[in-house]
Amino acid sequence: MFKLSEIKELIKLVDQTTVHELEIENEGARISIRKPGRTEVVNVQTAPVSHTYAPAPAQTTAAAQPPAETQQPAGRDMTGLHQILSPMVGTFYRAPSPDAPSFVNEGDKVHDKTVVCILEAMKLMNPLEAEVKGEIVEVLAQNGQLVEFGQPLFLVKPE
User: Fold this and answer.
1) Are residues 56 and 82 in the same domain?
2) In terms of domains, do 39 and 76 share one?
3) How many domains does the chain have?
4) What per-residue confidence (pLDDT) applies to 2?
5) Please, is 97 exposed, middle or buried when counting C-beta atoms within 10 Å of its C-beta (0-12, 13-18, 19+)?
6) Are residues 76 and 149 in the same domain?
7) Which of 25, 107, 141, 143 is the most buried if burial means most Cβ atoms within 10 Å?
8) What is the rounded CA–CA span in Å between residue 20 and residue 83?
9) Averaged pLDDT for residues 123-148
10) For 76-90, what is each residue's pLDDT tens digit?
11) Which residue range(s) make up the domain with 77?
């Protein structure tokens, strides 16, 4: 099974090279990445169930870049704050299960490997790490909300 961070790194690597297609199989999991002018994850399969990820139409204008209109929450002073963005289209979950406490809350301290939420895409649960050390200032998404690629999910005051 591929970790979300590994998939993101593969997309970046393909995007920065002249490689147009990459296919990798590892321990029953398979990922294909094609770049017809932009990087696009076209097929992710995990044995025995097949999962497919099709990028949102909003991605068609930029090569793996968040849409400009979703980069800054309206009416918010972003000076000195880091945004944790959604790397995919999916359902946002604040906790590992409905009866469990949230991974993080406003005021919590996080480090780069702290899991802040789960994004569900095609029945595949993807933990999202903070990737920055600091304090959660605001949670921007609601539990169970469908989120878009590049949508800000958390604001963090970096340390």
Assistant:
1) no
2) no
3) 2
4) 73
5) exposed
6) yes
7) 141
8) 30
9) 93
10) 667 789 999 999 999
11) 68-158
Look at residues 61, 81, 109 and tell me which one is the last residue of a structural domain. Answer: 61
Q: Which CATH number goes with the domain that contains 146?
A: 2.40.50.100
Q: In the numeric block, which tokens belong to residue 108?
A: 């919590």
pLDDT digits (tens, 9 = 90+) for 26-59: 777 777 777 665 444 444 544 444 444 444 444 4
Q: How far apart are CA 14 and CA 69, in angstroms?
A: 25
Distance from C-alpha of 154 to C-alpha of 75, rounded to nearest angstrom? 15
How sure is the predictor about 72, in pLDDT bands with cuts at 50, 70 and 90?
low
Residues 41, 83, single domain; the answer is no
Q: Is 40 in contact with 62 (CB distance < 8 Å)?
A: no
At 127, which amino acid appears?
Answer: P
User: For residue 99, how far is the Cα from the chain centroid?
Assistant: 24
- In the block, tokens 């595949």 appear at 124
